[in-house]
Amino acid sequence: MKKSLLLFVAMVTGMVANAQYENAKQVFSSPKLQEAVKTHKLVAILPFEVKMTYKKQPRDFDIETNREKEREKAYSIQSSIYTFLLRKASKYTVEFQDVEKTNVLLKKAGMTDKLGDFTKDEIAKALNVDAVIAGKFEAEQSKSEAGAIVTTVLFGGMGSKTGSGALTMMVNDGPTGDLLWRFFKSMNDDVFSSSDELIDRMMRKVSRNFPYSK
Predict the structure, then answer these.
(1) 3-state secondary structure of 69
(2) CA geometry: angle at 191 spanning 189 and 196, to 5°?
(3) What are the tens digits of pLDDT across the range 43-80?
(4) What's the CATH fold of domain 24-207?
(5) For strand 179-190 and strand 49-54, is the pairing parallel, antiparallel, or unpaired?
(6) CA distance 139 to 163
(7) What is the pTM of this model?
(8) CB crowding 13-43: b at 16 or more within 10 Å, else e
(9) Segments making up each domain of the chain, as ranges
């Protein structure tokens, strides 16, 4: 009985801590934001910078395979943000460049997989847009998917988190490259999470502060 009570208390404590972590967010708006966004008509969404790590590295871990997963996630998040914004296009004051066109233009400019080597105004010029949306996704896997499934079955969904992550989203002015807006959101990542789900969760928080909302 005592062991069961301690287990229950530990699980509830963990759920409370996870909820607090999930709610953590930070928003920055530049004094130049309001004037700058009035001049923006077309905005590009860049592939996100992705970093995926493990609390306990898997036995079959391969650095090249992990890098490929990070690259796939970078484009997956880019696509998910574009899809989300496209669904609600009437609510925004700007248009968003098709991500396929963005990626083709980045390739032609020799910027693919090397965005960190260029300034945001250089990227915006190559894409012929008024502003760029960029960001970073960092995730640490703390439990295997198999382990999370077992926990879900045993405890009905409690404690099925496989890891934690943080999403940072930024808007930079095209002509100047200046950072106009930054949103940071920490979140838990479970076994069923996809890029679409992660972005939906983030954008629900972003919507109140998103600089292009009407």
Answers:
(1) helix
(2) 65
(3) 999 999 998 887 777 777 788 888 888 899 899 999 99
(4) Double Stranded RNA Binding Domain (3.30.160)
(5) unpaired
(6) 7
(7) 0.77
(8) eeeeebeeebeebeeeebeebeebbeebeeb
(9) 24-207
